[in-house]
């Protein structure tokens, strides 16, 4: 099991000092997909970092629409091609498809068409990813952040529709709890759960910082399924890595050990 923190690779030294195993970056700042290769700095920054960057989130900016009447499918393909190609160079094998702004269904837009557009996008991602050994994981987002793919169960509809080994599923404790989704949905999806995000529900703070979170039910399901992938802390107001980081990582490891 590897625990990491969602932050800039430039903070990798502090992440390592906190006891974490990796950094999870943001696609936009890390891969700079709209910049030419000559201006891309991500690879250089990675080579000098003391920790790897095996995952990256916030896949598509909100200005690039995956759903709605303004979709540029070839533009999305070109964007994803650059992201995946650069991810392969940095050793980033997991790309998180949350992208609430990009996949939000516009008011009055046909929901079935929206679903078809997302499936088209994921099929394009799968074709590109398969050439580079990269996996996309679909992230459910709560309804306050997006109006489609709000649960693990709904995310699995897309995983099954695409039916490709490079398109899998993510579970995020914050979104799971915000939506009051039964953890049994996670158990049913475990063969396809390839990445995990964690944060407390109250304030979306780092695990353990609210004093009101219980990760044992979720971690028990993961352990029962022999999950041995990445667990990334994706929390708000988690900037003091030097002081807060060590106790958060310690707390997560304790929760994992106590889960049965």
Describe the structure.
The protein is an alpha/beta fold. It has a single domain (2-258), classed as TIM Barrel. 42% of the residues lie in helices and 14% in strands. It has helices spanning 12-17, 27-31, 42-47, 73-90, 100-103, 111-129, 152-162, 173-178, 183-189, 216-224, 241-258; strands at residues 2-6, 22-26, 55-57, 94-97, 135-138, 167-172, 193-198, 230-233. Helix 4 runs parallel beside helix 6 and helix 9 runs parallel beside helix 10.
Instruction: Flag low-confidence runs.
Output: none
Please list the strands of the largest sheet in the order they lie side by side.
Answer: 1-2-3-4-5-6-7-8
How many strands? Answer: 8
Rough outline:
globular
Summarize, please.
The protein is an alpha/beta fold and 260 residues long. 42% of the residues lie in helices and 14% in strands.
Please describe the structure with a list of short key phrases separated by commas or semicolons.
TIM Barrel; 8 strands; 42% helix; 14% strand
Task: List the topology elements.
Elements: E1 2-6, H1 12-17, E2 22-26, H2 27-31, H3 42-47, E3 55-57, H4 73-90, E4 94-97, H5 100-103, H6 111-129, E5 135-138, H7 152-162, E6 167-172, H8 173-178, H9 183-189, E7 193-198, H10 216-224, E8 230-233, H11 241-258
Helix pairs in contact: 4-6, 9-10
């Amino acid at each position: 099991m590897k625990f990491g923190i969602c932050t800039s690779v430039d903070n990798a030294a502090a992440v390592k000092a906190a006891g974490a195993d990796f950094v999870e970056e943001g696609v936009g700042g890390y891969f700079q997909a709209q910049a030419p290769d000559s201006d891309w700095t991500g690879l250089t920054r990675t080579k000098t970092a003391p920790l790897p960057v095996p995952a990256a989130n916030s896949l598509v900016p909100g200005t690039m629409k995956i759903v709605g009447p303004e979709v540029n499918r070839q533009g999305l393909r070109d964007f994803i091609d650059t992201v995946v190609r650069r991810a392969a160079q940095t050793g980033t094998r997991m790309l998180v498809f949350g992208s609430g702004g990009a996949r939000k269904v516009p008011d009055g837009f046909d929901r079935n068409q929206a679903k078809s557009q997302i499936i088209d996008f994921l099929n394009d991602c799968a074709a590109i990813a398969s050439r580079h050994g990269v996996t996309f994981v679909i992230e459910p987002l709560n309804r306050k952040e997006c109006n489609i793919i709000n649960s693990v169960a709904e995310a699995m509809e897309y995983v099954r529709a695409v039916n490709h080994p490079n398109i899998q599923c993510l579970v995020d404790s914050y979104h799971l709890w915000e939506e009051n989704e039964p953890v049994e949905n996670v158990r049913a999806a475990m063969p396809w759960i390839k990445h995990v995000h964690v944060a407390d529900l109250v304030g979306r703070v780092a695990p353990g910082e609210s004093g009101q979170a219980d990760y044992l039910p979720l971690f028990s399901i993961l352990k029962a399924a022999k999950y041995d992938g990445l667990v990334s802390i994706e929390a708000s107001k988690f900037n003091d890595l030097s002081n807060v980081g060590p106790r958060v990582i310690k707390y997560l490891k304790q929760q994992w050990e106590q889960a049965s």
